[in-house]
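Thread: quick sanity check before group meeting

JM: Hey all, I'm pulling together slides for Thursday and realized we never actually wrote out the predicted structure for the chain we discussed last week. Dropping the sequence here so it's in one place. If anyone has concerns about the input, flag it before I start.
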Amino acid sequence: MEAAAVVSSTEGVLRILLGKLGAVLTEKYVLLSGVGREIQELKEDLEIMNACLRDLAAGSEYHHSEQTRAWMKQVREVAYDAEDCIDIFWYHNSHRHCSHNPIVDWLHKIIRPLKTLRVMHNLAIEIRDLKDRALKVSERRLRYRVEAAFGGASDACAAGRSTPDYNHLERQLPALNIDEWQLVGINEKTKSVVKLLEDGNLACLKVVPIVGFGGLGKTTLAVNVYKSTAMKGIQTRAFLAVSQHYDLRILLESLLRQLIRVSFRDPNCYGEETIKDPLRGIESWHISELIGRCRTHLEDKRYFIVLDDLWSPEDWANLKVAFPNNDKQSRILITTRNRNVAEHCCSDTHDLIYNMEPVPFEESKKLFYKKVFKSDECPPLYDDLDLISNSILKKCSGLPLAVVSIGGMLARTKNKTIAEWEKVCNRLGSGLETSATIGGMRRILSLGYHDLPYNLKACFLYLSVFPEDYETKRGPLVRRWAAEGFISGMHETNLEEVTAKYLDEFVNRSIVTPTRIASTGLVKSCKVHDIMLDVITSKSIQENFISFMGNQRYSTTGHDKIRRLSIQTDSCGSDKEQENHNISFSHTRSLSIMCCRKKPVLISFSFFKLLRVLDLEGCWWLTNEDLKEICKMSLLRETSIRELPDTITELANLKHLLGGRYKHYTRISRVKHFEPHEALVIPRGLKNMKSIQKIAHVDIASSSSAMQELGSLSQLTKLCALNCGYGGEKWKPFAASLNMLCKSLWHLSIIHLCDRDVGLEIFLRLKSPPIFLEQLYVWGRLSVLPPWILSLSYLVELSLRENFFDGELLRQLGKLPSLVSLKLYHESFVGTKLCFEQNLFPRLKQLIVDNAPNLDELRFDGGAPNLERLTLAFEREPAKGIFGIENLPRLKEVEFFGEVIVDSVVEGMIAEAKIHPNRPRVYR
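JM (edit): ok, ran it. Output follows.
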């Protein structure tokens, strides 16, 4: 695995650098200074090295010598330093001086060329030094015969390996979030755990731990129990991923957010003082207050809590105080690898432990064949593989994670011959055959990593940036891959499409587990199994791919230079750490500070001159001075902050300007609500940000000058705009610019929070509406449905809120040919009857109906024949009821949500589901 990691990271660095060297050769100052010849020679040397790397990647990846690895490290460091040298030049060249004083500006125009020539002189000296270093690296390769370790591309062809065509990669993702090994043996295990939870009908609080080592499927079992309808009378529930290095505050906040579903039904709730949010200001609450609010909310309810991945008795002691023993038959389910932890949690005699055993051999075999052949059995054509399959499965020792990982790799082999499979079996070594240890699991999971094409390996190593048990969202992840430059050979505007397909490839190979899947089949978020995360994190550190602070498990001491930095806890940057490490951040390209409650001691944004990727998720300590320093990072490609200084418009390379946040309501976050006072304020000068692709969410009333400049952003694909408390005239400059973006936008959100004001009428008269829209969200009152919406043949997802439509809404929308998801949020429809008539909504898979205030009847009369997910919230019981569920042959689940859940409606749906041919699940 070592050499594969080196190849993927180093070849990626060189590919980025070669493009930059070509670009800098066109600069007039380079031509004038005479350094162009030096740069050209360096570029040619590095091109040869890159070709060697490609040959290395195409050959054998398992038997490279230490000499080869050392040579690769030297190539990588030369490439990194050369990239730093070029970016320092760009950094200087991108800084514009604007004093608003004509005399000062005139003087600056005279002085600037002189400064540039000085920079070019320094560049020339550094390039010559780098050229000498590159020459010495090449000489070492010949001197020590490193090339003997290389394998040619022809060897790869002979082995039958090929690189997938990602432009035409088929997405074969499941319609629902079900792990592969849920299909084999999980139902019986679920019944057993539910029986332990329910047996005895005890009124007191009962705790049931699931115990077993990593990879057995404890989390999958816990999720299945959590979703099960077998447990009756549960009034509230929550699922918490604890992990080894958890943050108690974050866990308690997550618990409260799951337990308390906030309602924004009051139409007058958008004022700053009258907003009805019981969790407002939760980030500032003391831990004792968080615990007290949890106990208060739970004390009169029958609750069900899952604590996944508990590591120590102290963890249980910290968390259990939030759960009152209220004599309401409440239940807590725990998963842990440590039996001592399980026994510590079971303090009462009625608490019982469920021991998670390895999957029996025959079930492992079914699971294996499902993964390889999409069948419970080995097809007759491959009967000769049955014996070698037994050997492979014996080494997997009944661990579902190992079976799925190896099965996924073998499913992709071209010829499926005994010889191919024997090679895999031999590489497994002893595996888990004699002892089900983490070491054996690592060996198995490493094979799945090796099987990735070289251009996917760097993307996969990058997942180690995120902490354990972190739910990685699709959008931020693919944007970061693109910003890091891991993708090449595509036009820049298509980069995110390509990276999105890479994520699908990881899911198809069962390397990551999807946690949320959209109705379109798109993976919205995923997780990496903690054992796989440990594998890739260790490799990232070993190859100086990513450095870590604040995580005591992974030491980055000895890294030559920090290139990518991930800070994961508040403990980082302590005085002790500052004394022990002389850390320099001047070479750092990527900085991730994940949910730190206070600013790390060692961090000053002025250190990060060459930063191009910045993620400050959950960092509420940012000051105006921090933002000013951030806005000096002219190479920055990504950020996510709210209040922006004027200098933000100087970030000409910035691609994503994202602000604000959502509240999520349903079990797996399908229903969400944007918090109205979290939108971005953008200053004048937006037109200078030519690279911008996504802006969300912008306050149009406070950014009126910027809205007039929107139309000049030709690469803009996503735009989310909000007007909170002002009249419809504020939309005029935005609408004018929207007409100029008719061919670039794919995603548009328009939010008008003005107390039932009919302020969106200007959008009825758009001259050039965005014809290629795939997602549209309209929040605000309209007299009629804009006619241009009905011509959006590419529209996949439509969300409406507080539009006060009635009558013919469904007959109009039902003719949209590509619509897969329809979300009718609160008061988007105010009629009394929603009827899905025949021949309407041919491709619809997801429907949300959220508190339509006057609804008396919901009918399915042959329309929406492909509907899979139905999500409903009612303020009252529909007078006439819900009809025609039997006319939805593909229905898989029905979910009820909201503060008021009408029991009679839920019970009626459960009865309908029992006789439905597809047996859909019903959640509440």
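AS: nice. The chain has 27 helices and 29 strands. Residues 102-143 form the longest helix (42 residues).
JM: adding both to the slides.
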